[in-house]
Structures are given as C-alpha cells and as structure tokens.
Amino acid sequence: MSTIVKICGLTTADTLEAAVEAGADMVGFVFFPASPRHLDIDFADALGRQVRSRAAKVALAVDADDDLLDAIVEQLRPNWLQFHGSESPERVRSIKRIYGLPVMKAIAVASPEDLSVLPDYAGVADRILFDARPPKDATRPGGLGTAFDWKLLDGVDLKLPFLVSGGINADNVAEALRVTRAQGVDVSSGVETSPGEKDPDLIRDFIRAARAA
Ligand SMILES: O=C(O)c1ccccc1N[C@@H]1O[C@H](COP(=O)(O)O)[C@@H](O)[C@H]1O
C-alpha cells in the first residue's frame, strides 16, 4: 500500500491546487479560530468545490459543538472528520453515527503513558493520527512544527491504519516513516514559510519525498 499523504491547513486556491496536482491523498481544512490556518465556512465551501474528488477532503476540528459540525459538513461536504481536541470515544462514536463519516482521531504523544488511551479510540476511530503533545501554554493543540520521539511508537500494534504528524518536512519524512512504520504522514508547518503561509514548492517537495520513502 502506498503511503497516505495528507497536507493540512490549506487556506488558498493556489496551494490547494499544488497539493492536489502533486498527488496528495488527503487535504485538510482547519476550523479552529486560534489557528493561523482557520477557515471561514464560506471560503471552505469554495475550496472544497475546487478539490472535485481529486483528493479526500478532511475537516479538522477541536472539540467542536454540534452547530459547528453541522455547518462544516453541510458546506464543505468532507470525506473525513479529524478530531484534534479532547473528544471522548463516546463523542467520536456519536458523531460518526450522526454524520456517517469516517473519523481520524489525533492522539497527543510525549511519553509512553499517552498511548494508554489507544484501545479506547481504536474501537471507534477509522484512523489514528499520532501528533506531538503541545506545550501546556500552546494556543492550539497542533500545527506547531514540533516533533515527538518517534521511537515511542515502537511496539504499537493497531488493527487500523495510522498516520504520524508533528514537525515533519521533506528532509525528515523518510525517517519518520521508517521509524514509526506509519501508513501515512500529515504535514502543515513543514510546507510553510511562516505559520499559515503554505508554499507550493515546499508542498511538491514534501509529496515527492514522502512518495520516494
Ligand atoms: O494546523 C493547525 O493550526 C492545527 C490547529 C489545531 C489542531 C491541529 C492543527 N494541525 C495539525 O497538526 C499537525 C501538523 O503539525 P505540524 O505543523 O506539521 O507540526 C497535523 O496533524 C495538522 O493536521
């Protein structure tokens, strides 16, 4: 199976086109006001139409309430929901039932104890995303450009595909995949020139490096 490549936090038509044309499997749109990649729902609608089934559209939310999820699903019509907050397994199960969409649940990793929740989520999520645990004073729970110790995933035995993220870029993506044996990678900061400013060349370089890994 080829590596699943997700480019997250797309905010412009140009960078979205670069990601899709370069062969991204998943393109992510962030709905979290504290993020420099936060998207207004109406603009997300336009970007979503631009994708035209060439990649899977992923809506990233952080402890979103039902009204926000309703609006996202209605306007963006995502193929996936990604939850990056403290959504419980019960909440994930209930949202899956309501919208009939697959869910990728992010697990924040900084120590072996962080993996103790895995059995609870593995039973309800369709994919797991291992991301670096943010510092306590962070203004957002992801998209910070910092990596975790990938060796912490040694011995993880999941029956569902998992992706890895956090501080990954074209230079270290091969190593991230080798060490974690993840089925896919997710990147945001690593294809940016500054927070929220994606660069088409960096996107293309990243996808090429991930494919070559
Ligand atoms: O990208 C954001 O701003 C963001 C905000 C809130 C939660 C998650 C967010 N991004 C996710 O973080 C990782 C990528 O991090 P990095 O910037 O490449 O280090 C990825 O899973 C994004 O989907």
UniProtKB/TrEMBL annotation:
| Keyword vocabulary terms for this entry | Amino-acid biosynthesis, Aromatic amino acid biosynthesis, Isomerase, Tryptophan biosynthesis
For this entry, the protein name equals N-(5'-phosphoribosyl)anthranilate isomerase
- What family does the entry list? Belongs to the TrpF family.
Where do the N-(5'phosphoribosyl) anthranilate isomerase (PRAI) domain residues begin and end?
Answer: 5-208
Catalytic reaction equation(s): N-(5-phospho-beta-D-ribosyl)anthranilate = 1-(2-carboxyphenylamino)-1-deoxy-D-ribulose 5-phosphate
Regions that span the bilayer:
none
- Is Transferase tagged as a keyword? no
- Please spell out the taxonomic lineage of the organism that makes this protein: Bacteria, Pseudomonadati, Pseudomonadota, Alphaproteobacteria, Hyphomicrobiales
Q: Which InterPro entries does the annotation name?
A: Aldolase_TIM (IPR013785), PRAI_dom (IPR001240), RibuloseP-bd_barrel (IPR011060), TrpF_fam (IPR044643)
**EC number(s) in its UniProt entry?**
5.3.1.24
Q: In which pathway does it act?
A: Amino-acid biosynthesis; L-tryptophan biosynthesis; L-tryptophan from chorismate: step 3/5
